[in-house]
Amino acid sequence: MNPIRERLALLRREMKNEKVDWYYMTGSDYHNSEYVSDYFKICEHFSGFTGENVYFIVGVESAYLWTDGRFFIQAEKELKDTGITLMKMGEENVPTVKEFVKNNIKSGETFAFNGRLISASFGSELEKICEVNNADCINLIDIPEKVWNDRPCKPATEIYVLSEEITGESTESKLDKIRRVMDEENCDYHYLSKLDDIMWILNLRAADIECNPVALSYLIIGKEKAFFFADKKAVNSNVLNYLNSNNIEYREYDHILDALNKDCKDHIISGRVMLDVNSIDVSSYNLIKAAAEIVNKKNPSLYLKSVKNETEIKRLKKAYELDSVCVTKFIYWIKNAIKNETLTEIDAADYIDNLRRKVPGFLDLSFPTISGYGPNGAIVHYSVSEESNAVLKPEGMILVDSGGQYDMGTTDVTRTVSLGPVTDSMKLHYTKTAIGMLTLAKAKFLEGCTGRNLDILCRAPLWNMGVDFKHGTGHGVGFILNVHEGPQNLRWKFLEGMEEAVFKPGMITSDEPGVYIENQYGIRIENIILCVKDVLNEFGQFLGFEHLTYAPLDRDLIDVSILSNTEIDLINEYQASVYEKMKDHLTKEEEEWLKSETAKL
Amino acid sequence: MNPIRERLALLRREMKNEKVDWYYMTGSDYHNSEYVSDYFKICEHFSGFTGENVYFIVGVESAYLWTDGRFFIQAEKELKDTGITLMKMGEENVPTVKEFVKNNIKSGETFAFNGRLISASFGSELEKICEVNNADCINLIDIPEKVWNDRPCKPATEIYVLSEEITGESTESKLDKIRRVMDEENCDYHYLSKLDDIMWILNLRAADIECNPVALSYLIIGKEKAFFFADKKAVNSNVLNYLNSNNIEYREYDHILDALNKDCKDHIISGRVMLDVNSIDVSSYNLIKAAAEIVNKKNPSLYLKSVKNETEIKRLKKAYELDSVCVTKFIYWIKNAIKNETLTEIDAADYIDNLRRKVPGFLDLSFPTISGYGPNGAIVHYSVSEESNAVLKPEGMILVDSGGQYDMGTTDVTRTVSLGPVTDSMKLHYTKTAIGMLTLAKAKFLEGCTGRNLDILCRAPLWNMGVDFKHGTGHGVGFILNVHEGPQNLRWKFLEGMEEAVFKPGMITSDEPGVYIENQYGIRIENIILCVKDVLNEFGQFLGFEHLTYAPLDRDLIDVSILSNTEIDLINEYQASVYEKMKDHLTKEEEEWLKSETAKL
Fold first, then answer.
1. Nearest CA in chain B to A502
2. Which of B305, B338, B366 is the last residue of a domain?
3. What is the rounded distance in angstroms from the CA atom of residue A195 to the CA atom of residue A482?
4. CATH for B68
5. Of B453, B535, B565, which has the smallest distance from its Cβ to A455's Cβ?
6. B475: how many CB neighbours lie within 10 A of its CB?
7. Are residues A292 and A314 in the same domain?
8. pLDDT digits over B538-587, tens only?
9. Does residue A114 form part of some domain?
10. CA B37 to CA B28: how far, in whole Å?
């Protein structure tokens, strides 16, 4: 019997015990994290589907799994023989989860989910639909826990304190700033479940999620005292002392719901509570709503942590310099090795990963390295597996998107590298992509601009020839934290009611245009750029960007004949700066190669 | 005695009769129009202030007039010896109107205004403040009417029908489209007070407001029947027959409030009424709210009329061609005349106005011509008067912003013209302004872009040297209608909750960057551009722009040494197209001059 069918049978038996007709699961964790630890891979365990953006409903006799277009082929393969129906999100006549619930959950039936895994807004909507359908809705039950025997443990890696020498700002100072906002909002408490916000405020780190140096935790900030919830195993005496010295009480991770529940003797929350309803789960939300008045506001730490302080910027510059050395050495290596060796995408990823591991202060990769050769480069979220692992040839291009976590900061960089002869269209697309990346980085603009103002500077060289890339141009990056961080970003599309964050000096963002030609090749060039002050005059405060990334552009992929003088200057200027930053970190052979690679066009 | 003091004494006598302690007035008309007829210039009559953006509160012993920074100097001069206190909007420690009302209207006092002149949102706020202060609020009383003896008549110029040959779409078809939206919103009525929307829907025009070919009117659209309110004197039998044939009942303009009032026997409105609460006055709003359920929605005509149809576009192209001939002839004339004659700003304005008057199909100017020489060019909303009228010298630059109303459409164009020697900084700023204007017009972008995406293409050449202009980059333009029209515009600043309109093929917008150096000079270059379809491919539908305006750039103001090859091509291409479009409309001397003016750089 297919093991998935066995697991579903166990799940259904327990559903029957609990008198549940439909059980709803998602790929999220309790903190609405972008990446999750194995403990939370419930959908994967019960469906066999390993992709992302997954929603899963199991009924007594049927089961339905939703995912988006990036994963249709993979899902069809992985769901084969499981009896699970694939629901292709966005396709015509495929209902959304909400529509499905509305149309299928009948009067008298019971629909259930673990509300800690579901957002407050979506969970409330599901509750309402059930009410309209006259169905019961149980919003806090973890059925998988009872029938997933070899479920991985909740992670509890050791938490450590980052010194002020590294963070540039004490927890005391950060809490002060947040309490000032609480005062303005006349709030008694501030509730946080976003892991990167909590880590940033407390200057703590751990390794609970792969590539994300965070600890599963909650934080409740009162007017004078705060409460930190984490696994006992993860908290050593050093951390306890540190918390103590900041007037922060430690509590066990699993006691968070008690702290929110007005009927529990250990409850904390009352009065007015500031929180972001878009990042809280529905179970916690319902408890807080019953105990206190909710003041909906984005976490102040979202904005505070996005503006890097001087210490962070100094360390980041070092991190990006050393990280760029890895990328530069990798490019030199692969261009030579391909001439003599048989290499695969995984070999390429391993090589650059190993270079990073040797950098002093290396902690982890900042995400699994994307290494896509030829047509695989055109898959934006490509993740190489033993099955897909392509053999590289001395022709065409490989796209490598990678980064590291160091005690100096978090990096993210993409280079597309030619391995031999390339076509004219590859050169055309690469050249225009490079010009887009460099033009945006060169922008000078008035304070008050958001990503929606600036995005076109990067896309224009591609748009002018009728080409687009279907992803954002840029995202913020954490400091020894998540590689994707808000609130700032670079996107162009207008969405009704969307919030936009203006660029502030000290913010860092990726600048990553690309061209993806299906079944042929993919190009992406990604630098991280730092927002800095430019001139202040009667017209206002102008801002600009500085490159943090210094890895060479591929000379063999640049078509000089289509460049204007200004554009040639733009490339020459960047390439010269790469040579200057890198030359002392390289072997003689590498240095000589880089000199010719970055020589004036 | 100062005549303003006499008028205020009369106003206060009537206030006493009506037991009103404070009377509030604005510069608006009943339709929230940008420009108003003399009938509505109440603030001007009772204060002597002739500027714009004015709010005026008269108390028993004191009086306060608000305006913004553009008009401080003028207001100080005009309010001298009137006893009226100038309230400088935006200056520190100057309360807003709302703050003033909150702090000064005392318990038991009566605050009054004519609610037909005040927006629903602002009027409701004033009512609430009075309630909190325990003061009475009379929201529908026209005290000026009783004491303004020589008040101009409400305009009632003859209304005329535009044939479908001109408009390209029948009223029947336009009403159909609007009724489809009413159906979607399940509405029984749609109430309109915006004059340009009403004129567009009904294919009617008049001349009630200078430069704006509209009639004071209201329109109520029912599911099958509609009601048009206008002055009896303005409606001839031809118009009556036309209305009849479209199942539109004519009613007297002054009966509009009765039609909204559920206690009047002639009332129309009931059920669900679709209207835009941001464009309705508070008196009408209160009446409708009492009689029906309000469905707040932007007028569908706002969007429909912004996308010009094929007939309109064909006529607009002709209008802009002939209008550009006027501008080209004017430039040739002034550059030569200045050598021999003594000319003033008014002479220049008169000359171009007279050229337009000779164009077949000329109806009116589209706004009073702005003619600013030297430092006057730096005043963005400069309006030349006998007092300010500068004498032109054979040096420096004159800025002329002007346009016409023709039976082919509405035009708007700005050129800055050198009259002799100019400085390097004038040339630098003119050249960068020209490049900004042409770069935006050359943009290619995906459908879905709004003005906030595109604006930076125009500003970048200026921003890159730390210069900005403090006005929008572009606005829509009506078709034989108001020169400023929404919903699309070109601006960069993000305002919380703002709505943005995406560009659609058929929309036209101004493209008008500038540089303003206080007390020295002003530069603005304005073309009108038409949004058109570009390629449709796997990446989506690309859009672009076409120039409608073909008036030459000033060769003497272009500094070739700072231009890249691409930028030189951009200017050469535009100048060549100007010569091609204009050459057959000119005298031999003009044509020869234009040929050398537009020759390749």
1. B494
2. B305
3. 9
4. 3.40.350.10
5. B453
6. 22
7. no
8. 999 999 999 999 999 999 999 999 999 999 999 999 999 999 999 999 99
9. yes
10. 10
